[in-house]
């Protein structure tokens, strides 16, 4: 049976164009048809936004062969990937040593629709990311998703084959740094690069998603302590923990993660890092930690460790076994009988001769002639004065960081020190005015008395 579908005029002759009549789409054809969609059959295969070339021009026989026209059955001209690779000779799976699993197994149609699709690569999903997630859904389940994963997997991965593991488009570390150029600068130019950042970002970061900010593989403090275990022990198990090491951003409160020009990957100077919290008093349950804004004043005379930007000279900054995070004991008392162990912190740096010799040698400028006035004050057997009785512990606008006043209970006890070329004088709240000279000594003064101070070295109760 035939039907006339048109007339083409050629000069004075007319040629009748005929084609076999095609059964309607609900009737299975019993003979060969020149066009698989003439009667509305297979419209789904040709209704894609982007069509595969053969399907677009109705060349179904590029891929299909009739097996039995009467039964309207077909076979593929080639099996599996051979069918695709007959035309797509650049996608044979031989471009690299690492091959995507569907490609390696000849399953091109796991990802591609052979007739058409919504993208120019004929994917079976609206986007490349959507297609990838049909198998790799868990990669994007975290609360924080890496930018490329949120949009498109192909900035990092190739779809078919690669020279690099995980189908990466280049070596893993180079790939990360190709986008994260600030990190590349930090690990490439700073004096102290963080080893994991310089060698392998994935020691700390998940490349796809995480429940942690910055797609970290674990909370910052937990992550850092997988390597820095001694710090972890100090921060968690010390009798005097430092909250800066465990709360908020934890380690990142003070350290940078990738690299720094400062030792220990400090974000800034040690003093500036400490001042971020300790510039003002910190109120805690039952006590207040005094602020130390004086250490940030450039003109002040500073204690040696402060001057060297090293608070760790006196403090265990992650946590320790002594009050105020001190590395050695240092009594909080204003006055007390002298015991060398009470000054273990001071004698880490200072010569013991400052207080152990009454006269003779000259270990200190605080002397009247040859008489050691440190010894007079500190080694007084009845009621010696501690270092904090005269000195500011961190910094002062006076040389030798002498204090203007020192805490004595609720009283700011005045020192009233005045320096001279050969010595000085003081008129403090704890004894009568005295003066001294290294070159013209006066008569020996009476050692400071215990007036107003109880036997424990504490101010009298009020």
Describe the protein's architecture and organization.
The protein is an alpha+beta fold and 462 residues long. 18% of the residues lie in helices and 17% in strands. Among the domains are: 91-217, no CATH class; 241-327, no CATH class; 340-437, no CATH class. A hairpin with a 2-residue loop joins strand 21 and strand 22. The longest helix is centred in the middle third of the chain and has 9 residues, at 181-189. It is rod-shaped and about 135 Å long. 23% of the residues are buried.
Q: Mean of the pLDDT scores?
A: 85
What's the end-to-end separation, in Å? 122 Å
- Beta-strand content: 15-25%
Strand order of the largest sheet: 23-24-25
Net shape: rod-shaped
How would you classify the helix and strand content by structural class? Answer: alpha+beta
Features of the shown structure:
two-stranded antiparallel ribbon; disordered C terminus; 462 residues; disordered N terminus; 17% strand; rod-shaped; alpha+beta
Please provide a brief summary of the model.
The chain is built from 14 helices and 25 strands. It has helices at 53-56, 81-85, 101-104, 128-133, 147-151, 172-179, 181-189, 195-199, 220-224, 229-237, 270-278, 304-307, 353-356, 373-378, and strands at 2-10, 13-20, 50-51, 64-68, 73-76, 98-99, 116-117, 144-145, 161-162, 192-193, 209-210, 240-241, 259-260, 282-284, 287-289, 301-302, 319-320, 367-368, 371-372, 395-396, 405-408, 411-414, 418-419, 423-426, 434-437.
Topology readout:
Layout: E1 2-10, E2 13-20, E3 50-51, H1 53-56, E4 64-68, E5 73-76, H2 81-85, E6 98-99, H3 101-104, E7 116-117, H4 128-133, E8 144-145, H5 147-151, E9 161-162, H6 172-179, H7 181-189, E10 192-193, H8 195-199, E11 209-210, H9 220-224, H10 229-237, E12 240-241, E13 259-260, H11 270-278, E14 282-284, E15 287-289, E16 301-302, H12 304-307, E17 319-320, H13 353-356, E18 367-368, E19 371-372, H14 373-378, E20 395-396, E21 405-408, E22 411-414, E23 418-419, E24 423-426, E25 434-437
């Amino acid at each position: 049976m035939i039907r006339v579908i048109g007339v083409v005029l050629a000069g004075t002759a007319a040629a009748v164009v005929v084609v076999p009549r095609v059964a309607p789409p609900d009737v299975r054809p019993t003979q060969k048809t020149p066009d698989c969609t003439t009667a509305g059959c297979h419209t789904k295969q040709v209704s894609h936004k982007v069509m595969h070339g053969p399907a677009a021009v109705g060349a179904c026989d590029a891929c299909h062969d009739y097996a039995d026209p009467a039964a309207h059955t077909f076979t593929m001209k080639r099996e599996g990937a051979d069918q695709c690779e007959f035309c797509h000779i650049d996608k044979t799976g031989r471009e690299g040593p690492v091959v995507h699993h569907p490609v390696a197994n000849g399953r091109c149609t796991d990802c591609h629709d052979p007739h058409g699709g919504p993208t120019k690569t004929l994917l079976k999903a609206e986007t490349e990311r959507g297609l990838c997630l049909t198998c790799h859904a868990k990669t994007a389940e975290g609360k924080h998703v890496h930018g490329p994963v949120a949009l498109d997997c192909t900035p990092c991965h190739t779809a078919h084959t690669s020279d690099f593991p995980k189908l990466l488009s280049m070596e893993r570390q180079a790939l990360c740094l190709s986008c994260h150029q600030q990190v590349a600068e930090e690990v490439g130019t700073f004096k102290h690069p963080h080893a994991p950042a310089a060698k392998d970002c994935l020691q700390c970061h998940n490349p796809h998603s995480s429940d942690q900010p910055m797609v970290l593989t674990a909370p910052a403090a937990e992550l850092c302590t997988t390597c820095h275990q001694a710090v972890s022990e100090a921060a968690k198990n010390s009798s005097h923990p430092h909250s800066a090491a465990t709360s908020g951003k934890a380690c990142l409160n003070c350290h940078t993660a990738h690299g720094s020009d400062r030792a220990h990957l400090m974000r800034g100077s040690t003093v500036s890092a400490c001042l971020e919290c300790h510039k003002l008093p910190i109120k805690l349950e039952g006590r207040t930690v005094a602020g130390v804004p004086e250490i940030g004043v450039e003109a002040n005379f500073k204690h040696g460790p402060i001057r060297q930007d090293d608070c760790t000279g006196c403090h265990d900054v992650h946590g320790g076994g002594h009050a105020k995070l001190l590395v050695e004991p240092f009594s909080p008392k204003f006055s007390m009988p002298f015991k060398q162990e009470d000054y273990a912190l001071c004698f880490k740096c200072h010569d013991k001769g400052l207080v152990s010799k009454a006269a003779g040698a000259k270990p200190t400028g605080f002397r009247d002639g040859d008489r050691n006035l440190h010894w007079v004050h500190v080694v007084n057997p009845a009621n010696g004065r501690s270092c904090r009785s005269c000195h500011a512990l961190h910094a002062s606008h006076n040389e030798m960081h002498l204090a203007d006043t020192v805490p004595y209970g609720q009283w700011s006890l005045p020192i009233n020190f005045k320096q001279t070329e050969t010595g000085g004088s003081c008129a403090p709240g704890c004894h009568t005015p005295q003066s001294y000279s290294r070159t013209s000594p006066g008569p020996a003064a009476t050692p400071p008395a215990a007036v107003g101070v109880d036997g424990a070295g504490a101010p009298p109760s009020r």
